[in-house]
Amino acid sequence: MTFNPTDILAIIPEIGILALAMIVILLELLSPRQEKLFQWVAAFGLIAVIALTVIFGNHGSAFSGMIALDGFSAFLIILITAVTAAVILMSGDYLRGTNIRHGEYYGMLMIASCGMMILVSATDLVTVFLGIETMSISLYVLAGLRPEKARSSEAALKYFLLGAFATGFLLYGMALIYGASGGKTNLAEIASAITRLDKAIPIHLYAGVGLISIGLLFKVAAFPFHFWSPDVYQGSPTPVTAFMSVAPKAAAFAAFLRIFGGALPDLGTVWIPVIWVVAAVTMTVGNITALAQKDIKRMLAYSSISHAGYLLLAVLASATYEVNKEAMAGMMFYFVAYALMNVGAFTVAILISRSREKGDYQIDDYKGLAAEHPWIAAGMAIFLISLSGIPPAIGFFGKLYVFSAAVKAGFVGLVVIAVLNSVVSVYYYLRIVVYMYMRPKEVSLSLKPSVVTLALIAICAVFILLGGVLPGKVMNLADQGATQSGLEKPVAMIR
Amino acid sequence: MEIILFIITALIALASALMVITRKSPIASVLFLVLTFVCIAVLYVMLGAQFIAAMQIIVYAGAIMVLFLFVLMLLNLRGNQGWENISPARIGLGFAAAGLLLLVAVAWLKTAGSMEVAGLDPEMGTVSAFGDVLFQRFLLPFEIASVLLLGAIIGVVAMIKRKPLAELGEDKEGKVS
Known about the structure:
The structure holds 2 protein chains of 2 kinds. Chain A is mainly α. Chain A has one domain. Helix content of chain A is 75%, strand content 1%. Chain A is built from 19 helices and 2 strands. In chain A, strands 1-2 form a two-stranded antiparallel sheet. In chain A, β1 and β2 form a beta hairpin. Chain B is built from 6 helices and no strands. In chain B, α1 packs antiparallel against α2 and α2 packs antiparallel against α3. Chain B is extended. At the A-B interface, α1, α4, α5 and α6 of A face α6 of B.
């Protein structure tokens, strides 16, 4: 119960990124014009945070069970930090066309990542809640950083009001679970308290599970709580959209998996049918709506909704003891793939839109890109092929691992729906590839890509292909993480 | 005796919460919100949570509500934008949905088993017990809350204070909405 000084080692990544955020904000105060400097300090600092996470990565549980820096959380912390670094690097060019203050923007990104780090390593409802709030409040601000654009203000206000409402559901659900489990907030203690209740499940425990799932489904933008995400993705500054589509989603899914797979597997018979339907509808709605989009940011928003549907398969599978670790590892792998392809696709989208007069994001702008800029078109084609899940790219293996875990847990019907959905998604991803390679160009784009942008596109493309050729390397790391953090004992399903 | 006090306070809290969302004048809404907070503070005292009750009065009913009142008076809102914009059909549908939910909830509660909640230590609400828990078991969440507040403060400054557009030079695409 009392404070143990070595516990601090378990929050080294959080301390590191927070210190870095303060350094960058203070640097802006001291020399406001050195914008390139902030960017590089932030990027190299984040690499140092990754190194610290690797060194202290298997500390285990700390602060009387509030937080655990284990294989699962270390893997996701490294992923989130890398995504933050990539977003900071892609932001430089974008920010120069706006009146956003660079230092504060980078600082807010890093505070949001600090919240996500807390969320992925949280093993207690209290830390889950605080992590979600630290992440969300920073994201509300980041969405609204361009108030001179009506869409940006709209995005921030919508996200804030709906997000605050969803937080209310989440918190009420947590309070009910706390009451029903005999005053427990620790996830493992809740799991054993529910096992001890045996078949006498009090009604407010069901209500708590329902409310908590509403809050979490909102955060991962799953049907029917996904309506905010296209508007918010479209209105936010584009690098922020790239960030939002990957990092918070990974963090919220980690919490989803830890709560539903770790604390509530005993109640699986209650929540599995609900999440089953939600997953099926989420992927279908996301894919069907994406077909009709003309704006690439909205298209990627709907595509990310459908990916949330696929990832819910991993949450479902994680409640079965035999495949719990496999589902965790599959989700971790999926997020590596998803981060690479989304960061790459958004980097290209920012580059293309900056050459346009109004800075908009029409899909028509991609017509004939290959003739003028063959390398950028090739990179974009790799990202889109990977997003649609066609074999040589890493996206295929992400889907393969998640789907195979789900089949082993017995969700064959849902996997069939997911595979059919992947086929539908090929249409809208490959439409852009067709535009780039087979349509004549309408307007000359005259792109002026900076070295950093080109490097980011190249790194993402190379890793997507490498991961597609050697998926075993990444999967081994994910397996190690999952083995450390998965369920330790089989659970007995109730009813 | 205690149950009577509870029923009276709970009813006042519910009634004033209803008034908060039905009053047309924002000032009246805020004043009813203060009343709700005071009633909730009374409920906290009855649960033995003196410290939380004191915080409720000092922070919520006191500081935050006074701030709300100041902002409302500065904005000089007119209380005439209300129900007129909502069609009767939507109000009817809303009540129908609420009624259905009530029916389902009642049916469900009738079949439900026990509703036992966690037993509480009577000493739990005192300041010293509260401090013990806050700075030992909940030390880390307490510190994370400070990160949350820091993020909110920096966020507010980042949203309000920005470089003037004139500094941007020729690149003024930000002005296009």
